Amino acid sequence: MLVPIAAASATLDFLSVNIWHILMAIGNLLILVLILKKFLFKPVQKILKQREDEIGKAYEDADKALSEAKTERELYKTKLDSAKSEADSLIAGASKRAKQESAEILENARIEAERRRRSADEDIELARKKAAEEMRDEISEMVIDLAEKVVEKEIDPKAHAAMIDDAIKNLGE
After folding, report:
1. Sign, Cα dihedral of 139, 141, 142, 147
2. Domain count along the chain
3. Where in the sequence is the domain holding 90, given as residue range(s)?
4. What does each C-alpha distance from 124 to 113, 129, 135 come to in angstroms?
5. Which pLDDT does position 135 carry in this prediction?
6. Which residue from 112, 120, 131, 136 has the highest number of Cβ atoms inside 10 Å of its Cβ?
């Protein structure tokens, strides 16, 4: 089929390369790029930069919080160690005081027992002396009674008293 010439010419114009059209298209493209750069790329770049700064600040804050947490952990660990050593020293002190009080109580009990033993010894000695004295008195009465019965009128009372005193002295020794 034959294509009419006018149609062929239009097809040719459509497919032909026109420098002005190419330059205009490039110019339009440059203007579009400049407009997009001014109104789209710069704000987007600005937003991306702000976002990057915010993320960086968040990382810095997180690092700072982490270092503070480590510092506080070390501080608490130090305080815990200090509290533990203080508790150990309190326990040691209480134990030492308890031992001292125990020793004092035992010493007081020993002293009290010694005092009571001495007091009991003194009471026993007094009771022994009293019993010996009572015995002497009873024996002297018996001797007097016997002597009176045996020698009723043969010895005078002075000699008799001297004999009794002598017997009592010999009895106590």
Report:
1. positive
2. 1
3. 40-172
4. 16, 9, 16
5. 81
6. 136
In a domain, 4, yes or no: no
Residue 166 · residue 147 · CB < 8 Å: no
Tokens of 29: 């493209």
Amino acid at 103: A
What is the DSSP track for 78-103?
Answer: HHHHHHHHHHHHHHHHHHHHHHHHHH
Do 164 and 143 touch, CB atoms closer than 8 A? yes
Long-range contacts of 103-108 (CB under 8 A, 24+ apart): none
- Give pLDDT tens digits along the chain (173 positions): 444 555 555 555 566 778 988 999 999 999 999 998 888 888 888 899 999 999 999 999 999 999 999 999 999 999 999 999 999 999 999 899 999 999 999 999 999 999 999 999 999 999 988 888 888 777 777 777 666 656 655 566 777 777 777 777 776 55
Cα distances (angstroms) measured from residue 130 to each of 4, 60, 153: 175, 103, 34
The answer to whether residue 34 sits within a structural domain is: no
Token pair belonging to 120: 């009991």
* Neighbouring C-beta atoms of residue 143, cutoff 10 Å: 15
Distance of CA 146 to the CA centre of its chain: 88
